[in-house]
Write a structure and sequence with these properties.
Elements (H helix, E strand, L loop, with lengths): L1 H15 L2 H9 L9 E9 L5 H9 L15 E12 L4 E20 L1 H4 L4 E25 L3 E25 L7 E28 L3 E10 L4 E8 L1
Antiparallel strand pairs: 1-2, 1-8, 2-3, 3-4, 4-5, 5-6, 6-7, 7-8
């Protein structure tokens, strides 16, 4: 709990440190220097497009609907950069760039009654996917004041996707026995260039033109939950 409190304090202190800037802007907004350029750094968690892993599973003989089995729940995380240029008080254009990592696991059981084999067998496919993207973006601010912005953004571009996997063979002497791994095979990787997209319907930003923290909920190649910091110049 103490570590969480310290982390929140470290995030909030720089914003509080700009409190004088809030007041100065309110008093002198007609002559306040506007920062037209914004750079952001963020991390994300949650689902991103799963089709690279789904396609890879199908090609290796596993169905696309075997998510999160064999004791390894799938997860996706990413690191992102964004740049925006202010066209007006409500519209910004820019670019998103980043890296996203995903992994998942699937099972396929073979019953000895079906295969005429004396032992129970299972195959596991552990899949990994690395993705690098670049997308021009547009942002629209629905509401803004001196310290808070509520916005949405959309982006379209391209991504380079690398997907690879490992197949594991498991055996057990009976239906109630422990499975043991008896073999492992590294499968060939696949590389492709794909169409990339992202939309954050809900975006909130707290801070000044010089420094702010933001949170977004979206769908696409940047992830579902996005947390980050931005600086203006």
């Amino acid at each position: 709990m103490r570590k969480i409190a310290i982390s929140i304090l470290l995030l909030v202190l720089p914003i509080l440190g700009h409190a004088q800037e809030y007041g100065d802007y309110a008093l002198h907004k007609n002559t306040w220097p506007i920062k037209n350029h914004r750079i952001g750094l963020s991390v994300s968690a949650g689902c991103w497009p799963e089709w690279p892993i789904d396609d890879y599973r199908v090609k290796q003989g596993f169905g696309p609907d075997n998510d999160g089995e064999c004791g390894l729940p799938g997860y996706y995380a990413g690191f992102h950069l964004d740049y925006a240029y202010r066209l007006s008080n409500l519209i910004k254009v820019g670019v998103f760039a980043g890296y996203t990592y995903g992994k998942d696991c699937s099972d396929k059981d073979l019953n000895p009654n079906q295969t005429n084999m004396p032992k129970y067998q299972s195959y596991s496919l552990r899949t990994r996917s690395n993705l690098v993207y670049l997308m021009p973006s547009v942002r629209f601010d629905w509401y803004r004041n001196t310290i808070f912005r509520f916005y949405s953004n959309v982006a379209l571009g391209a991504a380079y996707v690398n997907t690879y996997g490992t197949k594991e063979d498991w055996q057990a002497p009976g239906p109630y026995s422990m499975y043991q791994i008896v073999g492992e095979e590294k499968l060939p990787s696949e590389n492709k260039v794909a169409f990339a997209y992202h939309a954050s319907i809900i975006g909130t930003e707290l801070g000044t033109q010089g420094f702010s923290a933001f949170f977004e909920m979206g769908a696409g190649f940047r992830g579902m939950f996005i947390f980050g910091l931005r600086a203006g110049f």
